[in-house]
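Attaching the record inline, Q. Sequence:
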Amino acid sequence: MLRHKGYPEAFLLENIQQHHVNTQTFILNEQPVDITRLTQAANNADLILFVSVNALLDANQVTAMKALLTLKRPIIGLAAYSPYDILAFPELGTYAVTYEYTQPAITAVLGVLFGEIPAQGRLPISLPGIKSAEYRSAEGG
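Structure, as predicted:
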C-alpha cells in the first residue's frame, strides 16, 4: 500500500479487515523501498493487494511491484488513480482501476474483490501492449 498525503489508507485497511481479519500492510514511504523488508513481509501472504498511484511516474512503486512479482504469490494490482499504471508492470495478471482514491471508490472496488458485487465494465482507453478485457457479471449484465 502506498502512503500519500490525503489518501485514505486507514479506510482501505479497515474495510479489508472487515472481510479478512488477518491482514498486514506494508506502506511504501521510504525512498528507495527496502526490498528485503518488503519481500519478507509479503513472502508468506496468501494474496497481495498492491495499491498504486501514478506508478509510471514513481520508480519506487515499479521496483516494489517487480520485487513482489518474483515471489510468485497471487497479486492483485489496484490502480487508485491512473489506469496507465499497468504499463509499468504489464506482467501483472489481475488488475483493477478506481480512477480515484476516495472512500466510495475503495468501498466499490473492495465489494468487487470480495465478491459482493459483480465486476463489470471496460476501460475507456487503450493500453499499448496490454490485452483488453471486458468484465461481466455472472448474469451476463
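Helices lie at 9-19, 35-42, 59-69, 103-113. The chain has one domain: 9-113.

More tomorrow.
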